[in-house]
Specification:
alpha/beta; Rossmann fold; 2 domains; six-stranded mixed sheet; four-stranded antiparallel sheet; globular; binds adenosine-5'-diphosphate; binds magnesium ion; ATP binding; nucleotide-binding; ABC_transporter-like_ATP-bd; ATP-binding; ATP hydrolysis activity
Length: 245
């Protein structure tokens, strides 16, 4: 059924940086319409996995399949066009543009970074996204005037600008208050209700387990658990990875 169709499949994905194996023979699938948690201690290889999936660089070996198509090693712009968007742990807004422009510019290729190329529907869509991520009151301000939680929502807004089917979010809860975590959780749930599939990274389990349908846990680049939040909470290997690491 559509519910269990694989959106994304990683098979034996390995990424080496010189002698460092950041991702080690990692295999997992992401199902249509789910919110998947992707957790592991700092340095476990979470962001590197997103880099491979989103086309920042190819994996050293292994296969990445998106909706049945082998997309291993495809460049980021091609993957964005297919519907894969990601956020970065270190925010990357254009600081000389307004919040609204940042979101609007995410909808057009880099080569067209000129506001004169904007069409009316681009701006209208950017305003919708701005409201969606709760930044309407900041629309004409610069990113450096935003509070931390606002920058995070801008990062999500820029990803939404590319109209993704699969949204990869890297550590969205870092540095948020519990109210801001709740608000971010609400946003992710509403995106899923609109039909999006989400993979959400966190380096700890708290906050994330209430949001997600399923969790993959990695440690030293390897998958050590794959299950429901309840299964993960009580998994000895997971506790060991966090306490013993
Ligand atoms: P996580 O996101 O789970 O905290 P990362 O994927 O950022 O972990 O990093 C995994 C491992 O790969 C770490 O040992 C890190 O130092 C290393 N690493 C990540 N990116 C690079 C890089 N560009 N060059 C060399 N080593 C890297
Ligand atoms: Mg990371």
């Amino acid at each position: 059924t559509a519910q269990t169709e694989d959106v994304l499949r990683l098979e034996n994905v390995t990424k080496q940086f010189g002698s460092v194996t950041a991702v080690d023979d990692l295999s997992f699938t992401v199902h249509e319409g789910e919110i998947l948690g992707f957790i592991g201690p700092n340095g476990a290889g979470k962001s590197t996995t997103f880099d491979c999936v989103s086309g920042t660089f190819p994996p050293t070996s292994g296969t990445i399949t998106y909706r049945g198509e082998d997309v291993t090693g495809r460049p980021q712009h091609a993957l964005v066009q297919k519907g894969i968007a990601r956020t970065y742990q270190t925010f990357r807004p254009l600081n000389d543009r307004t919040v609204l422009e940042n979101i609007a510019l995410s909808q057009v290729p880099d080569s067209l970074f000129s506001l004169s190329d904007f069409r009316a529907d681009t701006e209208e869509r950017a305003r919708e996204i701005c409201e969606r991520v709760g930044l309407e009151q900041y629309a004409s301000q610069r990113p450096d005037e935003l509070p931390h939680a606002g920058l995070l929502r801008l990062e999500v807004g820029r990803a939404l600008g590319t109209d993704p089917d699969l949204l990869l979010v890297d550590e969205p809860f870092a540095g948020l208050t519990s109210d801001e975590v709740d608000r971010t959780t609400e946003l992710f749930r509403s995106l899923r209700e609109d039909g999006m599939t989400l993979v959400v990274i966190d380096h700890n389990m708290h906050g994330l387990l209430d949001l997600v349908d399923r969790v993959i846990v990695i440690s030293f680049g390897e998958k050590i658990a794959d299950g429901t939040p309840a299964e993960i909470r009580n998994d000895p290997a997971v506790q060991e990875a966090y306490l013993g690491g």
